[in-house]
Structures are given as structure tokens and as C-alpha cells.
Amino acid sequence: MTAGTKIRNLMRLLDASDAPFWAIDPKGKLIYLSAATAKWLGIDGAHLLQRRAIAGSPLSNDPLDLLAATLSPPPGLDRRGTASLRVQPAGDANRRIAPIDVRFVRVGQGESGLTIAIGGQFSDRVADEELADAAAVRQQLDAWRKRHAGIATIATAGVSSSAKRLRARIQVASSVRTHIGLFGPTGCHSESIAMRIHQQSAPREAIAIVDGPLMDPELLDASIVPVVNQLASSPEAQATVLVRGLDEMPLDAQRHLVHLLLSHSGRLRLLGLGSDASCIDTNAISSTSTSNDANVSERAKPPVDAALADLLASLTVTIDPLSSRSEDIPLLAAAVVDARHAAGEGVGERLSRAALDALVIYPWPNNFEELDAAMRHAVRSATRDAIGPENFPLAIRSFRPGDVAQRRKVQSVSLDEMLESFELKMIHSALEASDGNRAAAARLLGITRSRLLRRIESVTSDPKHAQPTTTAKKPASPADREQT
User: Fold this and answer.
1) ∠ CA 91-96-99 to the nearest 5 degrees?
2) pTM passes above 0.85
3) Are 442 and 399 in contact (CB under 8 A)?
4) 173 and 250 housed in the same domain
5) How many structural domains does the chain have?
6) Can you give the residue range of the structural domain that contains 92?
């Protein structure tokens, strides 16, 4: 019997089984799916062949790539040779695919290795608790991707109340076409969330992206002229403008933006990105604008024009800082590791317990962008499948909880105030040493008498500082008094 005939006989036996069976080559691509697998998934198995079965975000928006990725084995398979996982394939709006338990077996090593998967009932126990943890996180991630495929950006993963609120708001924002404000701290992925909302709510609509802090009315016109031309060319046309740094946009540019939005009412939509949702609090804006207190500083004035705030007030999405979502960090970090490993950036594919502990206590000042960069660094620097604290950037692996309080203490000190205080002490000392003789004090300080007089006048005019005083040890001579 030839080898080809043997293979065909084996395939017929596998196709005759009611247990799903598939095989993955050394590069992570699906090379065989049994008839039971195709029936379970509800598609022709040939459509998945040569697609990557590697955990993490697929390399395209093709639903079949996402489906193939959910058929990948759990972490640690290369080292252990066998593992079980409850596989939860991603279906579509019209078809729900039931999850099943799958046993994965690694046959061979290195480039000649082959992974086979068999669906069934398995009750084996995992001796390595860390691998069990990694498999549990993987199942959580698969469930999240399956339920929230349309909004599956990294910021939406998690079990905290912040993550649940964020997912709910994004779902609402994705279901309607209206002006939307997205507010969050530095590195919060607000732009990627805004783009996902745009793709869900208006997939074929033109979009213009502008940097708010750089705008003036003329530059704003030039930046969005393509979408404005589309609106002018057809009364049915619709378009969106996404403004980064809306709360830093000059007021004249904001007012011009309002004019454009109202001129194309219902057809031109705004997605505004900012750092603090309080800037569109219309009550605060009203009370500030009507205040008669002449001492209200410019910094107390709202950074967003009242008319623009009214447009955004109907729907806002607030993104909480990563430091307030510590319970979500293991899942978020694992999602990034999955994506980086799937992209072939390194061998690291799971996080050790010590690594997770280090991630949870770190304050993440740059939020999701910093997390993404840290996990990219970890996957690349890891020399085995498990990522440890030693694979993280220096800022994370050397962080201690007390560092935050110390850093805040240093940041709360004004350098100008410290220098001014030191200068005041030096002037006091020089005046005391010279018995109040300002000319002599200026010589001690190495400056001119006129400069000393200007500094004394500047200090004494500031109510925060007391007037420099001297301790007279002896009456000044007539010559000294004449010099002063």
C-alpha cells in the first residue's frame, strides 16, 4: 500500500468519526480539518486551510482569520507536549458555535513538529499551576473576543466595573450616528476606540483627522476640505471629523468647527478626543462665564466652547486610567502578549505569576500605550515561553510601591519657588553680614547694587514673602548711609 493511500485511508477514518479533529503545521497554519470539525463550525473546512491558528488578534478583519485563531492550542504546549482547553470559536450574528473541550497533542520537535487537536471529554489534571492559570486567562480572552468582536480593543477587556461600563458605552456609541466625546488620560487608546466606533456606526463614511491644538479657522478648513467637498457635491453624503486634543483646541477654531457642524447639521459628525470630560460640563461652563469675580484666572475657564460642549454632551465615553483597573491588568497584558506572539515577535507566550504581580503593582502613568510597549519588549526579550519580571523594561521591573509617593512629593515642589526662597535667604544673609549696607551686600553677592535693589523690591512687593530684614549690629556710618 502506498503512502498516499495510507494517508487517504487515515483521512477517511478521521472523517467518519463524530469527534472534531484538526491539525496545525509548525508555522501555526491549519493543514487539515475533519468533516466533524466542519460540521461543528458550520462552514466548509477548506475555507480555513492555510489560515493561522495562533492565539491573539488576527492579521486581518476577515472573520475566517478570527475563527482560525480560536482553534489554536493553549500556552505551554511545546514544553509539555499535551494540554486541554475549552475552545470557544467566534461565530457571527446569525450562528452560534457551541464551545467544546479539546485535547491538543504536540508530535515532533521544532520545525518538524505537528500539533493535532481532538474534541471530546477530558478530565486530566494540570500539574503546573502556572500553566493552568495561563489556560484560564486564555479562556477568558476567547470569551471576551467572542462576545465583543466588534469592539475588541485592548481597553475593553476585563471584569472590573470600569471595563463593563466602557464596553456598554462603546456598544451604544457604535449603534448610533451622533456627535461623540471620548475622554481619557494619556495613552488610553481613545483614538483607536473612536475609529472602531466609526467603523461600526458608519463603515463607509469618509473621515478627516485633525490635531486640535494646531488648528486655527483657516487651517481647519484646509484640513477637512476633502470631506466638506463631498458634502457639497451630494445632499445625501455624510462625513465625520475626528479631532485630537479637543480640549486644547484654540477657541476661535472651536467656534469655527461649531459653525461647520451646524452648517451641515446631521451630515457632518464630530468625534472629539480630550483628556477630561469635565471640560464639556455645561453647568460649569455657564457658571464660569457668568461669574462676576474679577479674580477668576484663565486656567479656571473651561477649555471647550459652550456651543461645542452642548453638541458633545449627549453622548460621552469616559476611559478610566489603567491604575484604577488593577483586576483587569492580567487579562489586558495577556491579550497584548497573545497579539505580539501571534505576530511572530518572540517566543514569549504567557506571563508567570511573578510577572503578573509586577504588572499589578505598577502605576502605568502612560496607560494602555505603555502596557502595549512593555509587553512588546517582554515578548521580544523572553528566551522561553514563560515571561518573567526580568523581561520587562527597567521602569517596571525596578518599581517599588513607595516610588509613587516619593515621585509625587518631588513633583509637588516648584523649582521657581525653591530658587526664589534660596535667593531670599542669600539676600538676608548678605544684608546681615554687611550691617544693612546694601552696596556692601551687593559686593558679597557678586552683583551690582542696582540689581540687588531690584531683587529686594521684587521680593517685598510679593505678598508671599516678608520684606528682608536686617539685624543691625552697629549704626551705619555717614559714608555708608550716603552710599545707600
Assistant:
1) 90
2) no
3) no
4) yes
5) 4
6) 3-151
Quick check: is 81 in a domain?
yes
Question: Position 152: which residue type?
Answer: A
Burial 77-92 (b: 16+ CB within 10 A, else e): bbebeebbbbbbbbbe
Residues 6+ apart with CB under 8 A from 269: 177, 178, 179, 180, 202, 205, 238, 239, 240, 241
Residues 458 and 347: their CA atoms lie apart, in Å, by 63
| pLDDT tens-digit series, residues 373-386 | 999 999 999 998 89
Examine the domain organization and report whether 253 and 282 are in the same domain.
yes
Residues 45 and 144 in one domain: yes
Which cell numbers in the block locate residue 320? Answer: 478610566
> Which amino acid, one-letter code, is at 313?
A
pLDDT, tens digit, for every residue of 244-291? 999 999 999 999 999 999 999 889 999 999 988 887 765 544 444 444
